[in-house]
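## Example pair
The file below holds two records. Each record gives the amino-acid sequence first, followed by its structure token line.
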Amino acid sequence: VVEFFNECKKAGIKPILGMEAYMAPGHRSERTSPSGTGSDAAYHLLLLCENLDGYKNLIRLSSLAYREGFYYKPRIDKEILREFRRGLIATSACLGGEIPSTLTRRDASAARKIAETYLDIFGPDRFFIEVQKHVPEQDAVNPELADLARKLGIGLVATNDVHFLEKDDHHAHDILCCISMGKQINDESRLKYPTGLYLKSPQEMQEML
């Protein structure tokens, strides 16, 4: 983080520090996964540092996630998120976020309650509903996310999931994923990332809207 921060400063780029946190469905000490695979043991939540207080709190949350909440992944919960919320900005994250996941299960009422909880923790200036456009499932849930943001008076942000830098890097990234998962490139059942998960230009982002 320090190296990233310093190199950005040298290049005249404003660095934004943060992390994609994993949120436990309940208390961070609970070790449950209905599927038995751990895939439903945590939701995504994007946390960004607004200032030095936020950076200090981010480090506290990261440490607590490993020390107290680890179950398949290092997890935090809403209890410690509320305690260490100062200086942090949050967004509802990708389809793996708690709010989008609930909407995909067709439970708009529960999704609204979750959004209201995060709104209460961070306030209207530091919590945002996030939309992305990579897969059909996101196209289906984006109108509901936008409607929820409008009803609650929450800001709406369009983001881009980035897993590789350039568009042409997709094949190399695909090979690396095969290596990490011990899969063959011709295995049709393996995890495959969409081709659009590269760092897009502002113009490309506008064209996606």
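Second record, same layout:
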Amino acid sequence: MSAGFSLGFLSRVYSPSADPKVYRDTLELFRVAEELGFDSGWVAQHHFASENGRLPSPLVLLAAIAQRTRRISLGSGIIVLPQEAPLRLAEDAAVLDLLSHGRLELGLGAGFDPETFVAFGRAHEARHRDYEQHLQQLLNALGNAPLTDSGSRLLPRAHGLSHRLWEATSRVELVAERGHGLIMAPNPHLPAHAGAALVTRYRNAWTGDNGTPARIARVQALFPAPDEATRRDILAYVQRQQSIGVFKGEIDADFDTTLKRLGVLHGPVAQIIEQLQQGPTLSAHDQLILQVQTVSTPLRDALRALEIIREHIAPALGWQPTLATGNLS
């Protein structure tokens, strides 16, 4: 990993119960992260509290965050595009981008949870086909293409947002061809070096025809001091992924082996730094996005993890913080 990358964090808006406090905690997480100099914050979409993720509507929460922050970029990591009405998504994204003064980073994916596809009346096995169709409709709207025979177009306009799209997929050549950023995370069924190979394929396929730079968002879970609750949360996560067919095979008898397969970094700061240095090389247009929460993580522990990242881990990798801009009054 080289110097000059952007630093972000990912919140899955986890909570063991349906307590609205989880949204207020996420607002505070973004506020403090901005003060610490983090460049971006991302939230994940979970329908029906799958994995105890409590956020079905990422753009709604990001709109609230936009009014309490000034500088930090606001990312969706990810929105399940096959389950969305593309034009409505474009309208919501355009309004949020205006409210945030162009800070939205729109991350998209095909999704994987069969239960949610049933609820939305979509075929799980057709999700990649639907993803491509919905993406084209979304791009048409964001690109100011006429949407009706009479020439109706997206309003408000989303100036520049089409250049801030990200995709989470292994079909990296398609992402590069479209000029989008690539969101990548460890795959428990592939060796650790597979991520670097994916990045190489993406960069080699890049044309730059739309005027944007190649850009990687490397997502990694990081727990400097995992306690028993964290370990229980991770095991429960793996068991659910196994039950829906995402995690293949048996669960490892040794928990540290499971953590390694998942790409979850933990232990002394020096060890975490060394593990991060072994990952794909990041440069000026790329992002390192770190997840520091499981279902049971208290807000204070998440904030402390962000402080450790900002003070000890990210600087050792070559990152420099953006100066704080103060709070909104």
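Notes on the second record: The two ends are 38 Å apart (CA to CA). Residues 211 and 317 are 28 Å apart (CA to CA).
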